[in-house]
Amino acid sequence: MKDTVFAIALNHQSQLDAWAQAFQDAPYKTPPRTPVWFIKPRNTVAASGDTIGYPAGEQVQSGGTVALVIGKIARKVRPQDAAGYIAGYALANELSLPETSFYRPAIQAKCRDGFCPLGPLVREADIHNLTIITEINGRQADAWNTADLARDAGQILSALSDFATLQPGDVILLGTPHQRVTLHPGDQVRILAAGFPALENTLQAEGESA
């Protein structure tokens, strides 16, 4: 998958809870009423098995999630019709540097090479009550359930297609919890969920040979 990857911030209840007080500060003084979007450009896309560069002097965090893949041109799709526009789902890892604000996700934190590994497409998948597990070096480091998403796949597709025409092959990451897993150079990361092939990648310090 090498088409546009869209992602939604603040779509997990733990994020809304963690930022509740900050939402009241100036200049906003209110929680966001519409989805907060950002893009993972093509340079971020990696496949399962790829080695991901770990930038020197930075802290990289893992955000295991699930992505929906668009199957046909989608424009102003109603939530109840969204299933007809979805080709399937894939596991994803929304890698990022730590963030201080979700209102304006930072390009330098989100858009580094390889910072969006995507697994194989699964055409028949039920993601409404799906537990997503992150393993680091063979040990479970995180688990969360898609039932805690603030907006489901149909609502997310509808909201994005209201202003952007989506093309076959476009991808939407459905969100991550507030708590992320900190990674280190040399870590082997596996994202797992029932019915999906494992998404596996290794982090390697930039400048080191494979």
Give a written overview of the molecule.
The protein has a single domain, classed as Fumarylacetoacetase-like, C-terminal domain (Fumarylacetoacetate hydrolase, domain 2, Alpha-Beta Complex), CATH 3.90.850.10. The protein is built from three helices and 14 strands. The protein has helices at 13-18, 107-110, 153-161, and strands at residues 5-9, 36-40, 45-47, 51-54, 60-62, 64-70, 86-93, 116-118, 131-136, 139-145, 171-173, 181-183, 188-192, 199-205. It has a five-stranded mixed sheet, covered by helices on one side. Strands 4-14-13-9-10 form a five-stranded mixed sheet, with no helix packed on it. A two-stranded parallel ribbon has the order 3-8. A hairpin with a 2-residue loop joins strand 9 and strand 10 (139-145). It is globular.
What amount of the residues lies in strands? 25-35%
Poorly predicted parts: none
The tally of beta strands, per DSSP, is 14
What's the total helix number? 3
Rounded to the nearest angstrom, the distance between the terminal CA atoms is: 24 Å
Please name the fourth-level CATH homologous superfamily.
Fumarylacetoacetase-like, C-terminal domain
* Top-tier CATH class: Alpha Beta
Strand arrangement in the largest pleated sheet:
2-1-11-6-7
What would you say the CATH architecture is? Alpha-Beta Complex
Can you summarize the main beta sheet?
A: 5 strands, mixed
CATH level-3 fold name: Fumarylacetoacetate hydrolase, domain 2
The structural class is: mainly beta
Q: How many whole angstroms does the radius of gyration measure?
A: 16 Å
The helix fraction, in percent, is under 10%
In total, the number of domains comes to 1
Shape: globular
